[in-house]
């Protein structure tokens, strides 16, 4: 047979932003072997893509799938959206390295995200061993790894303490970053709203990113503030990229959070453009929803999040500490993103809990919970939720305005990322964010077809060639002969997200085929059991 698959009768959108053209694609040994107006050769399989768009597989530039992989490698929710490559190790998080003797501490940290993670074994220590471990597993989609600053700080730096690192700690952290970059990481990420990462100074990050810069790696950041301080926070990432000499910085899930700050995207988009004009490469990613997702504990003032989980939990049980927290929320603390004041308890919806007593309020906001559970105030519900669930409470938080969402979406420096994770559709716990299932089809259905904000070609560029270019991947992200055959075939008239905040575990419609490394993984909209995904190493 000349080819493994030939895709016939489709409209090819190459991912570069060019208009579609008519052509046929021959796939052989995982690669796009031929593109031509007509391919007459023998083939094992023909896909008739009549009426369909054929485009590059989507690269989810910001994903937390690494938390799910130890439990399930199916990645069904993102694969069925067309995601063929997933970038993990975001927001300063990640699953490696885990030096010897630090396993228990590591499990406590990830246990706050998902208690199931504490029951598993992690048979690796270094970042290299972590990548090799993942390579041996059966992955549905390709994986790209970053090292998270939160991890590096915990194992080699000042951990939960609010102080600068000593010179010895700086050296140790740099060693861990160097080891990850040597192993094939694409860069380092930070999450500067999360404790203890939020205690770091700009200069300390610059020093650490200099190591990433030596390797021509990238710096991705959940910036320090997305509301009141969003412009200062964007100035900070620009400064970090500029002073470290790093080749590129990415603003994670760019948004304007908090109704009083809506409209600030005019300024932030300008800042990004101007940085690029003077030769500092700054890009951003975004998911198309008006709620974020985070953990409830991160709404506490920074001082209340010092130390380890036990310290924090014991401290918030004390009435005098609760009073101090309430006062600080009311008057605010300079530089701190104050969700309870800016968004309000009525906009904070519980997505997951671990204590059975609270399972009946999943999906409700904290004000509703106060009513249902009969507490005296939202504050009482807030503290009791954290205490009963030992801080393991995930929330979605309604904070964004449509005008900002649209303005950011239109920026040519913006690309698409889920900030979600690939999970099985039969996932039973919690009410996670619909972005896990709907990000890409929502852009293609709502913002392209229904609202005509973007053309199909513009939108697909933001999902494929642009993130590939950001990562330096020369052999993915474009429909081009010689590239890996990562492809999506979808119906432009039907493609749409079905997941909502109320019913988040709904697969999209109108995406019949997804192909990873030349292997069909989604057929007639359903994921099969094939796992052709590879670990991708930073190109050198
Ligand atoms: Zn984040």
Could you give a short description of this structure?
This protein is an alpha/beta fold and 540 residues long. Helix content is 32%, strand content 19%. The chain contains 17 helices and 22 strands.
Protein described:
- By secondary structure, the protein is α/β, with parallel strands linked by helices.
- It folds into two domains: 58-292 and 400-475, TIM Barrel (Alpha-Beta Barrel); 294-398, no CATH class.
- Helix content is 32%, strand content 19%.
- It is built from 17 helices and 22 strands.
- Strands 1, 2, 3, 4, 5, 18, 19, 20 and 21 form a nine-stranded mixed beta sheet that branches. Strands 9-10-11-12-13-17 form a six-stranded parallel beta sheet, with helices on both faces.
- β11 (218-222), α7 and β12 form a beta-alpha-beta unit.
- α7 (230-244) runs parallel beside α8 and α15 (435-450) runs antiparallel to α16.
- The longest helix has 17 residues, at 167-183.
- The chain starts with a strand and ends with a strand.
- The relative contact order is 0.17.
- The model has no long low-confidence stretch (mean pLDDT 96).
- The chain binds zinc ion (ZN).
- The site of zinc ion has 5 residues, from loops.
- Zinc ion binds at residues 91, 191, 222, 252-253.
Helix-strand blueprint:
Elements: E1 3-12, E2 21-28, E3 31-36, E4 43-48, E5 53-56, E6 58-60, H1 76-79, E7 83-88, H2 103-111, H3 127-136, E8 142-145, E9 147-148, H4 149-156, H5 167-183, E10 187-191, H6 202-214, E11 218-222, H7 230-244, E12 249-251, H8 265-277, E13 282-286, E14 291-295, H9 309-316, H10 319-331, H11 339-342, E15 348-352, H12 366-373, H13 378-388, E16 394-398, H14 402-410, E17 414-416, H15 435-450, H16 456-463, H17 465-471, E18 487-490, E19 513-516, E20 519-523, E21 526-527, E22 535-536
Parallel strand pairs: 1-4, 1-5, 6-7, 7-8, 8-22, 9-10, 10-11, 11-12, 12-13, 13-17
Antiparallel strand pairs: 1-2, 2-3, 5-18, 14-16, 15-16, 18-19, 19-20, 20-21
The protein binds zinc ion.
């Amino acid at each position: 047979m000349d080819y493994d698959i030939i895709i016939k009768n489709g409209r090819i959108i190459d991912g570069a932003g060019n208009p579609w053209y008519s052509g046929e694609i021959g796939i052989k040994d995982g690669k796009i072997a031929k593109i031509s107006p007509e391919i007459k050769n023998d083939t094992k399989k023909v896909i008739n893509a009549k009426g369909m768009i054929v485009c590059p597989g989507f690269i989810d530039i910001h994903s937390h799938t690494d938390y799910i992989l130890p439990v399930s490698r199916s990645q069904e929710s993102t694969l069925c959206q067309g995601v063929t490559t997933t970038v993990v190790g975001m927001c300063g998080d990640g699953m490696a390295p885990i030096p010897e003797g630090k396993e228990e501490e590591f499990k406590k940290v990830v246990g706050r995200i998902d208690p199931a993670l504490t029951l598993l074994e992690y048979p690796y220590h270094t970042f290299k061993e972590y990548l090799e471990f993942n390579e041996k597993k059966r992955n549905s989609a390709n994986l790209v790894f970053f090292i998270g600053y939160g991890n590096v700080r915990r194992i080699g730096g000042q951990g939960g303490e609010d102080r600068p690192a000593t010179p010895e700690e700086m050296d140790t952290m740099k060693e861990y970053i160097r080891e990850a970059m040597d192993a094939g990481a694409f860069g380092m990420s930070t999450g500067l709203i999360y404790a203890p990462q939020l205690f770091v100074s700009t200069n300390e990050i610059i020093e650490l990113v200099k190591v990433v810069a030596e390797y021509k790696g990238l710096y991705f950041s959940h910036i320090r503030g997305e509301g009141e301080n969003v412009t200062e926070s964007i100035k900070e990432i620009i400064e970090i990229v500029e002073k470290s000499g790093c080749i590129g910085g990415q603003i994670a899930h760019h948004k304007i959070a908090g109704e009083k700050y809506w409209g600030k995207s005019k300024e932030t988009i300008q800042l990004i453009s101007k940085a690029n004009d003077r030769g500092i490469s700054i890009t951003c990613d975004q998911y198309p929803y008006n709620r974020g997702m985070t953990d409830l504990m991160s709404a506490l003032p920074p001082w209340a999040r010092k130390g380890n989980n036990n310290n924090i939990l014991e401290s918030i049980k004390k009435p005098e500490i609760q009073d101090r927290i309430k006062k600080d929320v009311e008057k605010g603390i300079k530089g701190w993103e104050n969700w309870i004041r800016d968004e309000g308890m009525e906009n904070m919806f519980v997505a997951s809990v671990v204590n059975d007593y609270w399972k009946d309020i999943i999906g409700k906001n904290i004000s509703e919970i106060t009513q249902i559970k009969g507490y005296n105030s939202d504050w009482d519900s807030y503290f009791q939720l954290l205490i009963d669930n030992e801080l393991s409470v995930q929330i979605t938080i309604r904070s964004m305005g449509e005008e900002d969402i649209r303005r950011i979406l239109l920026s040519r420096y913006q690309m698409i990322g889920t900030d979600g994770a690939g999970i099985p559709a039969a996932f039973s716990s919690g009410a996670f964010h619909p972005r896990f299932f709907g990000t890409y089809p929502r852009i293609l259905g709502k913002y392209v077809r229904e609202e005509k904000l973007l053309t199909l070609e513009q939108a697909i560029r933001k999902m494929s060639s642009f993130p590939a270019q950001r990562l330096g991947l020369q052999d993915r992200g474009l429909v081009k002969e010689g590239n890996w055959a990562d492809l999506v075939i979808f119906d432009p008239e039907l493609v749409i997200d079905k997941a909502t905040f109320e019913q988040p575990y709904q697969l999209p419609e109108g995406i019949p085929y997804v192909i990873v490394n030349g292997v069909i993984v989604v057929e007639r909209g359903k994921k099969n059991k094939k796992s052709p995904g590879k670990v991708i190493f930073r190109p050198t």
